[in-house]
Amino acid sequence: MSEEFDVIVIGAGPAGENVIARAARGGLSTAIVEESLVGGECGYFACIPSKILLRPVELAAETGRTPGLGPGMIDTGAALARRDEVVSNLDDTRAAAALKEVPAQLFRGRGRLAGPKRVEVTLADGGTARLTARHAVVLATGSRPVIPPIPGMAEANPWTSHEATAVRTVPRRLAVLGGGVVACELAQAMHGLGAVETTVLVRGQALLERLEPFAGQFVADSFVTSGIDVRTGARVTRVERRVRNGEVTIHLAGGPPLVADELLVATGRVPASGGLGLDTVGLTPGSPVQVDDSMRAVGVDGGWLYAVSDINGRALLTHMGKYQGRLCGDVIVARAKGEPDDLPAMRDVTTASGVPQVIFTDPQIGAVGLTEAAAREKGYRVRVVEYDMAAVSGAYVREPSYRGRAKAVVDEDRKVLLGVTFVGPGVAELVHSATIAVTAQVPLERLWHAVPSFPTVSEVWLRLLETYGL
Question: Which segments are annotated as binding site for FAD?
Answer without folding.
Answer: 51, 111, 141-143, 310
